[in-house]
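Example record

The entry below shows one chain as it appears in the dataset: sequence first, then structure tokens.
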Amino acid sequence: MSDYLQVTTTADNRDTAASLARSAVAARLAGAALVSGPNTSFFWHNGEMGEGEEWQVTLRTTADRYSALEAHLLQEHPWDNPELTAISIVEAPEDYKAWLDKSVDER
């Protein structure tokens, strides 16, 4: 696994998405977060196909901080089972990686 991750979750409105992004960055669990939307989403929920408007939150973090970020997002998210996925950042400039390391440093 890469040492750097891009984590995504979604919310049903901009304010919730912004709150999740802001709180994760403030807690130094992510170096940066981007809120985008609204997006139209199609999904299965409780055995039925649904459609709705969602806002996406994209966060950048390190593998070392992922568990704490996941716990934070699950605790703060209003949904019982929110989307929460992470993909490896395979390549990035060394200066960017150094910035991300420094940004999520717990000290």
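Notes for this example: The first strand starts at residue 4 and ends at 11. The chain is about 35% helix and 40% strand.
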